[in-house]
Amino acid sequence: MLISCNPDDIEGSMKLVEDLTTNANKYQQQVLEEIMTQNAETEYLRGLLGEELNEESFKKKVPIVDYEDVKPYIERIANDGESFKLISAQPISELLTSSGTSGGQPKRMPTTAEDLDRKTFLYNLLVPVMNKHVEGLDQGKSMYLLFIKSETRTPSGLTARPVLTSYYKSRNFINRPFNRFNVYTSPDETILCSDSKQSMYCQLLCGLIQRDEVLRVGAVFASAFLRAINFLEDYWQELCSNIRTGKLSDWITDTSCRNAVMSIHRQPNLELANLIDSECGAKSWEGIVKRLWPRTKFIDVIVTGSMAQYIPTLEFYSGGLPLVSTMYASSECYFGINLNPLSKPSDVSYTLLPTMAYFEFLPVEKNHEEMVQGASVQCNGDTADLNCLKEEEELGGKTVNLVEVKLGQYYELIVTTFTAGLYRYRVGDILMVTGFYNNAPQFRFIQRRNVVLSIDTDKTSEGDLLNAVTEAKLLIEPLGYLLTEYTSYADTSAIPGHYVLFWELKFRGNTDISMLDSSIMENCCHKVEESLDFVYRRLRSRDKSVGPLEIRVVKHGAFDALMDFFVSQGSSVNQYKTPRCIKSEKAIEILNSMVVRSFFCTKDPFWNLRLEAKRSSIRLVAFVVGFS
Ligand code: AMP
Known about the structure:
The protein is about 40% helix and about 20% strand. It is of the alpha+beta class. It has three domains: about 10-115 and about 325-450, no CATH class; about 135-155 and about 170-325, no CATH class; about 450-625, no CATH class. Strands 9, 10, 11, 12, 15, 16, 17, 18 and 19 form a nine-stranded antiparallel β-sheet that branches. The chain has a four-stranded mixed β-sheet with strand order 2-1-5-4. Helix 1 crosses helix 6 (about 115-135), helix 11 (about 220-245) packs across helix 13 and helix 17 packs antiparallel against helix 18 (about 520-530). It binds adenosine monophosphate (AMP). The site of adenosine monophosphate has 16 residues, from strand 1, strand 9, strand 18 and strand 19. One of its GO terms (molecular function) is acid-amino acid ligase activity. InterPro entries: GH3, GH3_C, GH3_M. Keywords: Ligase.
């Protein structure tokens, strides 16, 4: 089922949205039928379903799987050259490398030519949705900073690359709406330049030259946009000098990139160079985005999920511009869009489009102990009285359909794709239902499953860590420090092992962290520990099987170096998200080499069984009140 959308036609596109959301169930039933019929002869489905191509048999006989289950099939196609018919009725055109890993390697997801058109449909639909909410976007340009990543070939000759690289290199991208009218400041050649430094420099140069026309700026994820700002901090003088002289630095050696830039950068512009010089040379970079691109109406970057922690930094640089998270997607499948793009980051919900795939939802709930320990947690950027999930208990392992999900309930997303060969596949994302648009549910992204730190029997999820760090950073924010990045690892090189957090801090106005007060930082360590769960605190205080938590403050740029490392290992710049827990020895080594100061927790966190129960019941009351 391939639906098309004319991005020029706001009214027609909105009617389409009405139809898709009103008839969500009908579309989902059609999608499942089509997937089963089309793929009935694949080795995978035939072995499970035979002739029983109906929903009941599908749910009874096709197991819910994760990547490790489908990996052998993917490897047979990728490495042994076996036919795509193992899993898909259509030829696998390439493999998409995801930011998730399996055995230290990026996961590889099959895709087909038809899938590309489905993604294009979603991108096209975003255009009228945005135009409906923000007037006059057709009166200027978009500065989208987009990057590709190099690709590899599998032994059977398939190309393996990140999903966005695949899309940017496709005809669908080159022919994207309005591209022929030069409404994007980055020429395609600068996006398609495989040297990410040259690509970044050229895209920023083109964006600065066309600053008066820019109506929106963005990147895919918040982290990529902030990386561009950091790059600008390092290169603005050289960019200014290029603008002043009308020349392009010699180190831009990619010929097509060079030619494309020179077609825009035709002559010296003294006035512009002076203006950028004075803005970038100012003591503080607060509001720099608005100052450099004064007509910008919003920043188009995903700030939900693990990206939420960048919101304060983005707000610092943006000068109060709205942050717009437009879509929710993955290498496996593109899922849905945000129908209220101007909503606050904390209110962002995504409506899954019922023609993108067949969706099922596995209800998940916190176990009792975790319910009792409800604490406020930063889920979508704002601190909400919500319990982010720590460890999910499947409620009977039974899935519900798209239109059957319940308001306020948490679910794990299960997807069955048209042609990518994924049947009842656990994406690994936990979503919460926040409302309905017609009959289509809208979801808040909560977190990815199973990202844990563990020394003993403690299990700390990404959500737990985010919660604890959010609490601790409140101690330093009033002093003018911004926590711009963090990650962690379980240091077990000594006994007992302990949690190590790497923090990159920024002092408003400059990057001087020499004034950091030891006692405040020790309090931060303590606050993190106090905010971690009961098991952790018991192991730390009573059992002493976990040592005092340590915060290592790293110098400015350390997390860029970390990203460079992961990119060199196969991650894509666009899709890169700072891992909140790192295991790679090399990555830890990189951060350790950039540590400027280190602080340990000097007192045990609170732990007492009797008082704990009392404290928990107080929290439970607060939790219930918060929800009512
Ligand atoms: P990848 O396959 O590497 O592109 O990563 C896909 C994953 O990124 C998804 O499964 C989510 O965990 C995360 N992701 C994608 N879009 C969003 C979004 N809008 N908000 C939060 N997380 C997202």
